[in-house]
Amino acid sequence: xxxIFRFIILLFISSPIWAGFQQTERVEKDKGEKFIRGxxxxxxxxxxxxxxxxxxxxxxxxxxxxxxxxxxxVDIDAKTVGxxxxxxDVDNLYRSYIDTLEIIPHRxxxxxxxxxxxxxxxxxxNHITEKAKVHQNKKGKIKxxxxxxxxxxxxxxxxxxxxxxxxxxxxxxGDTISMDAFFEDEAYDFKIIYLGKxxxxxxxxxxxxxxxxxxxxxxxxxxxxxxxxxxISDDINRIPLKIRAKLFVGAFEVELSEYEGLKxxxxxxxx
Length: 271
Fold this sequence. Notes:
Strand order of the largest sheet: 8-7-6-5-4-3-2-1-14-13-12-11-10-9
Oligomer: single chain
């Protein structure tokens, strides 16, 4: 269950797997701010009828400088709740400093507390040299190493924000989308299937959305074709609304439960 929780929560709150789509369009024409600073999104995770976890995504009201780059600062706090916390006690913080123009990370930090497992990690990205310096502190044991990274690699937080700048217009149902990302000590090439546009029921009413499914390797955890599906609002905000995972034992679901400070009400597609 610990692996399932970590996989689902990280995959959902970051949504980096689509961030490599349209990599050739890195420099945005709009030089103004792309997100409303101060916005907050709260997600609830459920395993069957049980509340399992909560994740809070917060975009800081201030801008920050990282190696002379102007950045947004995004924090994600994720923790287990209720009876799940007794079995698998999670209290994690993920933080990314994201370039306000190119929506790429310059620094990533995470503080992990999962039962007895503890880790602090900082990754400094250099997108010119295509290198990432990783500093880890695992129970006082320090590890530092430099890695090669793909061009404009995302971390698990920044990819979520870059996704919100990408248009899915012109993408055909069934198309496969690839992405480059770097996490911990490894570069990843994820692939996602675009399943088209849908209208889904949410706590906030019926919302137009984009449906996607990651291509999963053979495993003994997730059941059937398109075992994991995501829905992202097809509106001005472009935020993840829900994820559903079919397991061999039961199902896991994460959905948006609260929000504040968005550009518009959820479902508002503008003019």
